[in-house]
Amino acid sequence: MEQILPHLDSVFSIDCVLFGFDGKELKILLIERNEEPFKDWWALPGNIVGPDESLDQSASRILYELTGLRGIYMEQYYAFGDPGRHPQGRVITLAYYALIRLGGDKDLRPVSNYAKQANWLPITALPKLAFDHQKIYDKGLEKIKRRIKHQPIAFELLPEKFTLTQLQHVYELVLGKKLDKRNFRKKIVSFGVLKELDEKQKGVSYRAATLYRFDKRKYAKLFGKEISF
Amino acid sequence: MEQILPHLDSVFSIDCVLFGFDGKELKILLIERNEEPFKDWWALPGNIVGPDESLDQSASRILYELTGLRGIYMEQYYAFGDPGRHPQGRVITLAYYALIRLGGDKDLRPVSNYAKQANWLPITALPKLAFDHQKIYDKGLEKIKRRIKHQPIAFELLPEKFTLTQLQHVYELVLGKKLDKRNFRKKIVSFGVLKELDEKQKGVSYRAATLYRFDKRKYAKLFGKEISF
DNA sequence: ATTACTTAGTGTAGAAAATACACACTATAT
DNA sequence: ATATAGTGTGTATTTTCTACACTAAGTAAT
After folding, report:
1. Cβ of residue B226 closer than 8 Å to a chain A Cβ
2. Beta strand pairing call for B194-200 and B210-214
């Protein structure tokens, strides 16, 4: 019911919580601000939604501009709009999260003029964040904790080919608790969305593990059925 | 990362999907528009977010203005912002849902000048909706289907005192499938969030059922534990 | 070649939860 | 008293969850 379109001084932006996994730790991408307000503070990367782009497009563009990445699973999860959240005016922001595999082949493109630097920081030791970004991050983590139980998002954090131990490691980091190896394997294999490859892990100084791949086709067939961890 | 605050011609609104239950059917509140665009079409009630209110406050105000109701469980669930969604300009809308018990004591306040009429229409026979409101509604229904499995939202659709059969009826309507009576009762009682009253249903021409009440205190104690249907 | 080391990979028994299923009870209306 | 309509309950079976420990395989060092 939007009858009238008054001219309002409000700004609509998107902030991204980019979770990254380097094989060891969960990290998020933060930017060190170079301008007031919150000069020298760390903040979530974000930007203003353009006039002719959809929200998802806008989020993809922002992610691309900040990281050079495309084709990443990304989803909006909450809008933050308290009148006082931005000291210079009314800014309503829509938060998106993305899950990204770090390291490996291509590195992230350096990030532009917005900031002194951009860096992947481990979530176990985050600095104080600008604006209400701590709140945005907290809600984002909560969201992926829930979602990893029901949706195949863990694979976004891993290379295309991965071992079950690596997969378990991702679940443990996101959920913040240890899982039983045998039960984990039993369950994850029983979903039937993993394809066991004829390949083994390489470059390790111990017994090499079998590699698996997430099978999108099989997952698509399951649709409707709920996966549950 | 919102450095600059340009002046943008975008409007930010909230649309509400108000689910109502009258003891028999699930309904949603719709408004028949009295102005172009989409004159004479049915639409979701909504309004523009004020400059000094938070999003939740705004949603509560809008709900109050349209229905006279206060203190209703309400939650944002998705932002819709395709550039073409409003023919007269860029309107980004944040969708909220609310669950409301219909009928009974106090009736809804009549709805203002926005519309020719407001009406509760059964979700089994909805008219074509203005704008992208069908999409907003669909997503809302999907959302409460998920949420009713994990959160105690069903009680918002029922009077304070209700029978287990009524509760089951709500679950069946929202989930869109029949449930087994014995198993339903076993499970819902096992959560320990219902208080059995010493009262019985009145005014029925058959054996009167025991009344129950949702016990918020007990539910609060459970926090962390997941309820699952 | 042997050994030490490190991680991969596997099975089972018991507990708990989910499911399927049918009939007797109670209040009211006639 | 009888018909009616919804209430309220128990159990056996299947499925899923949990807890738990050792052998196999490959690498590295000697």
Report:
1. no
2. antiparallel
Digit-by-digit pLDDT tens for chain B (229 residues) are 433 444 456 799 999 999 999 999 999 999 999 888 999 999 999 999 999 999 999 999 998 988 888 888 899 999 999 999 999 889 999 999 999 999 755 566 666 677 888 889 999 999 999 999 999 999 999 999 999 999 999 999 999 999 999 999 999 999 999 999 999 999 999 999 999 999 999 999 999 999 999 999 999 988 777 788 8
User: Which residues, at least 6 apart from B97, have a Cβ–Cβ distance to it below 8 Å?
Assistant: B16, B17, B18, B19, B74, B75, B77, B140, B143, B144
Least confident of A5-14, A57-66, A85-94, B78-87: A5-14
Mean pLDDT within A9-13: 85
Query: Residue B117: is it exposed, middle or buried by C-beta count within 10 angstroms (0-12/13-18/19+)?
Result: exposed
Residue A176 has pLDDT above 70, yes or no: yes
> For chain B, which domains are there?
10-150 (3.90.79.10), 158-221 (1.10.10.10)
CB contact under 8 A, B5 and A88: yes
Tell me how far the alpha carbon of residue B17 is from its chain's centroid: 6
Distance (Å, whole) CA A182 – CA A193: 18
Distances (CA, A) of A223 to A152, A217, B174: 12, 10, 19
The 8-class DSSP code of residue A23 comes to S
Touching check for B82 and chain A: CB below 8 Å? yes
Partner-chain residue, chosen from B1, B12, B43, that has the shortest CB–CB distance to A44: B1
Q: Count H helices and E strands in chain B, helices first.
A: 5, 10
- Whether A217 sits with its Cβ under 7 A from any strand D atom: the answer reads no
Helix axes B133-150, B164-175, angle to 10 degrees: 130
Q: End-to-end alpha-carbon separation of chain B, Å?
A: 40
pLDDT for the residue numbered A2: 39
- The reply to whether the CB atom of residue A225 sits less than 7 A from any atom in nucleic acid chain D is no
What's residue A35's pLDDT? 87
| CB-CB contact of B131 with B39 (8 Å) | no
Rounded to 10 degrees, the C-alpha dihedral A56/A61/A63/A65 comes to -170
C-alpha to C-alpha distance for B18 and B11, rounded to whole angstroms:
22
Specify the DSSP element, H or E, that contains B16: strand B10-21
> What is the value of ipTM here, to two decimals?
0.91
Is B54–A83 a contact, with Cβ atoms under 8 angstroms apart? yes
Contact status of B224 with chain A (Cβ, < 8 Å): no
